[in-house]
Specification:
It is a single chain. About 40% of the residues lie in helices and about 10% in strands. By secondary structure, the protein is mainly α. The protein folds into 4 domains: about 45-245, Orthogonal Bundle (Lysozyme); about 260-325, no CATH class; about 330-375, LysM domain (Membrane-bound Lytic Murein Transglycosylase D, Chain A); about 385-510, Membrane-bound Lytic Murein Transglycosylase D, Chain A (Roll), CATH 3.10.350.10. Helix 9 (about 185-195) crosses helix 10 (about 200-210) and helix 16 packs across helix 17. The longest helix has 18 residues, at about 165-180. It is globular.
Length: about 525
């Protein structure tokens, strides 16, 4: 199967309050001149490195293995200078990398892969496993959904393997090995292909061959983002390798395992798992960002990544308890009008779980009967890193004067909704933790930030549908609901010269505390 039609984007945005790496950079002030050599083969350095493990930290271990040539190229020099001017960013990201770098380097050495690849998450996600890019890529290694699934990562309502740091690292290195083979064992090609797809890289090579031009990476005509992606990685590798020379401070990481991966066979509440490990629920979720909900999925096995000092405690508690202790169950009496979907939503689970636990075939349930339903051991507000909690925090960041909740209708897209409210598609996507090309499902609630007079501290904005009556005009309706005619026109994509028709439905966003009845 070919993968060139998938786009695995590089995420250059620095998260958690850091600055963004600019696309237009200053002219270089210093240059390191090194010959550009082929990176098709490399010696096995793992034995030499491991012999000195007891006397070095992870960064020193990494320095010993960084051997890709760093050429005297404009973009390499510019990115190096950018990093040198933003040393706080480097320190912040190296702190974030603390739990994972040892594991990543171990896996690279085991496969005899270039250690420069350990720095890809620095470029891709700033080592933030919750990162989500404009290209619908997620996690430390910024996998798109199709590519993630192809390389064995599971994605469902309960779990997203793209954010599971251990699982996604294995998948990313599998992907990079595949790209290395597909691009004629050229690591610069392979790294570029990780960003833009191997098909695009190989086509660029063929074009140059036909024209009698050089076919090294630096001579290829590639998308601008990809042409900057490889230089950024090489500049970063050069700075890490010569950090003392550049006066760069890196967050120290002992050259020992920092995490341990344990397996649990059955569904488990994250709050229970946290108690077993002696962690807060938030701390446990930070090590296990792949879990979308308050519990693991109903079908195991599941893995938990734990700090080394918590793993033994967790394993002991796991051995001393039974699967029934890992979840809380509620006996629910079916009411008239209930259906499985409604009940599942009420208890923050899925219809398939309820049907499986209660051995229900089909969708028929009977009022008066009882269902056994898994429920969270603590209030849902306690689970602060679930997908829902993270989305709500994102949506509530103030971006305008007042917030409108838009209920997505069948056939709508981010583009059509953005046009309706006169905002940019990229803004609408960002406010709702989405990518501009993400599909929408009917019934989903989007937050739209607007500017205008409705921004009052005690305003309660509601979306209402108004049926035009005989004698109504835009001015009369605007006056009745204390809104502006210009807003009425914008919300309903109306022409001010058109007459309203009795029976016509209008969409309004109204401060319900401040309009005449």
């Amino acid at each position: 199967m070919r993968f060139s039609h998938y786009f695995l984007t590089g995420c250059f945005t620095v998260l958690a309050g850091c600055q963004s790496v600019p696309t237009q950079l200053n002219k270089p002030t210093s240059v390191i001149k090194q010959p550009l050599a082929k990176a098709e083969s490399r010696p096995d350095l793992s034995t030499d490195i491991k012999q000195t493990q007891t006397t070095i930290d992870v960064w020193e271990r990494l320095r010993l293995g960084l051997d890709m040539p760093v050429p005297d190229k404009k973009l390499v020099n510019q990115y190096r200078n950018w990093y040198l001017k933003h040393q706080k960013h480097i320190l912040r990201v190296t702190e974030r990398a603390h739990p994972y770098m040892y594991m990543i380097i171990e896996e690279l050495e085991k496969r005899n892969l270039p250690l420069e690849l350990a720095l890809l998450p620095f470029v891709e996600s700033s080592f933030d496993p919750f990162a989500y890019s404009h290209g619908s890529a997620s996690g430390l290694w910024q996998f798109t959904s199709p590519m993630a699934r192809h390389f064995g990562l599971k994605i469902d309502w309960w779990y997203d393997g793209r954010r599971d740091v251990h699982a996604s690292t294995i998948a990313a290195l599998d992907f990079l090995e595949y790209l290395y083979k597909k691009t004629n064992q050229n690591w610069l090609y392979a790294i570029a292909a990780y960003n833009t797809g191997e098909g695009r890289v190989l086509r660029a090579v063929k074009r140059n061959k036909r024209k009698g031009m050089n076919t090294d990476f630096w001579s290829l005509d590639l998308p601008t983002e990809t042409e900057r992606y490889v230089p950024q990685l090489l500049a970063l590798a050069d700075i890490i390798k010569h950090s003392e020379k550049y006066g760069i401070k890196l967050s120290p990481i002992p050259n020992d395992p920092q995490i341990r991966v344990l397996q649990v066979k059955h569904q488990m509440d994250l709050a229970v798992a946290a108690d077993y490990a002696g962690l807060t629920t938030k701390e446990l979720h930070q090590y296990n960002p792949g879990y979308n909900r308050w519990a693991t999925g109903p079908k195991g096995p599941h893995t938990f990544v734990l700090p080394l000092e918590s793993a033994d405690e967790f394993e002991l508690a796991l051995n001393e308890t039974s699967p029934e202790d890992h979840m809380k169950w509620q006996r629910y009496k079916i009411k008239s009008g209930d259906n499985i979907g409604v009940i599942a939503k009420r208890f923050n689970t899925t219809p398939s779980v309820i049907k499986s636990v209660n051995r229900i075939q089909g969708n028929t349930i009977i009022a008066g009967k009882h269902l056994l339903i898994p429920v969270a051991t603590k209030d849902l507000s306690h689970y602060t890193l679930t997908a829902k909690a993270r989305l709500e925090r994102k949506q509530n960041i103030k971006r305008g004067d007042y917030k409108v909740n838009h209920n997505v209708q069948s056939g709508e897209s981010l583009w059509t909704i953005a046009r309706k409210y006169s905002v940019k598609t990229s803004q609408l996507a960002r406010w709702n933790n989405m990518a501009p090309k993400d599909p929408l499902r009917a019934g989903k609630t989007l937050v739209v930030w607007q500017k205008g007079a409705a921004a009052q501290s005690k305003s309660v904005i509601r979306n209402i549908n108004y049926k035009v009556r005989n004698g109504d005009s835009l001015a009369r309706i605007a006056d009745k609901f204390n809104v502006r005619i210009s807003d009425l026109l914008k919300w309903n994509q109306l022409d001010a010269k058109e007459y309203l028709q009795p029976g016509q439905m209008l969409n309004l966003y109204v401060d319900v505390t401040n309009f005449s009845s």
